[in-house]
Amino acid sequence: MSKVRSYISLVKFSHTIFAMPFAFIGFTLALQELKKDKFVFIFRDLAWKFILVLMCMVFARNAAMAFNRYLDRRFDALNPRTSIREIPMGIISGRNVLVFTVVNAILFIVTSWFINGVCFALSPIALFVILFYSYTKQFTSLCHLVLGLGLSLAPIGAYLALTGYFSLLPLLFSFAVLFWVSGFDIIYALQDEDFDKANNLHSIPSFLGKRKALNLSVLVHISSAFFIFYAGYFGGFGYLYWLGVIVFVGMLIYQHSIVKPTDLSRVNLAFMTANGVASVVFAIFVLLDLILRK
């Protein structure tokens, strides 16, 4: 059990709270779309597809996080903030983490085969995106956008799992996730500005400095809010959706109000609590709006 807990800690399983709710939104959007087309799903088949989507989410995220920890192991050992992670502490060996990454990557692709042909064909591309992020901090300050792109695959991926085709509405939610995640990752990276500069690592804070990085994260989050608003308008959502929007945008504003260039003491509160509330509460309101539609 201690080993299991170590691997759960390694991949920061609690952070699934960010992308998973949007996967639920994509899945429910697909279900509503199929209902409009008079497509009847047997409950057993629907439950099986839902389980497969969850499995893909878990396997993909495990692979991405473990690979990131593997590549960053040398820097993590040097950084006082990250030196307590599993590899630097010797709790899990780098070799075992790499094996864990490969196993989860294979399981992700195999699971996608059971979903449908489109998901299976696109699975290597999705895997490339989420694994490629781990390299980006070594050569570009736009690494935050690559991370956002990886998590943005959740709603459109879940939608494809049921329908097998792309649609604009889940793509709008994907763009919202892209800019939302990118914005709060910039805030999170403020903690490592000096370390990144000293070790030739790239990030928006190390490139622009704390104040300008925070200003840029505001603009990125405004972009996320735009796509959330446009998705609501385009999808013809009701008042429940817009209540969710109030919470989501409110949490964006809140995290920017508590993090200052001269005071980073509440970065973790902004990162985990504010964004966790934003994703979960927003998703609940969106799902209720979809489910209660006539």
Q: How much of the residues is beta strand, in percent?
A: under 5%
Uncertain stretches of 5 or more adjacent residues: none
Indicate the mean pLDDT.
94
State the distance separating the first and last CA atoms: 47 Å
**Total of domains:** 1
CATH superfamily: UbiA prenyltransferase
Radius of gyration: 19 Å
CATH class: Mainly Alpha
Main β sheet profile = none
DSSP summary, beta strand count: 0
Tally of separate helices? 13
User: The CATH topology is what?
Assistant: Tetracycline Repressor, domain 2
At CATH level 2, the architecture is Orthogonal Bundle
Structure description:
The protein is mainly alpha-helical. The protein has one domain (2-291): Orthogonal Bundle (Tetracycline Repressor, domain 2), CATH 1.10.357. It contains 13 helices and no strands. α6 (117-136) runs antiparallel to α7. It starts with a helix and ends with a helix. The model has no long low-confidence stretch (mean pLDDT 94).
Question: In short, what is this structure?
Answer:
By secondary structure, this protein is mostly helical. Helices cover 79% and strands 0% of the residues. The protein has a single domain, classed as UbiA prenyltransferase (Tetracycline Repressor, domain 2).
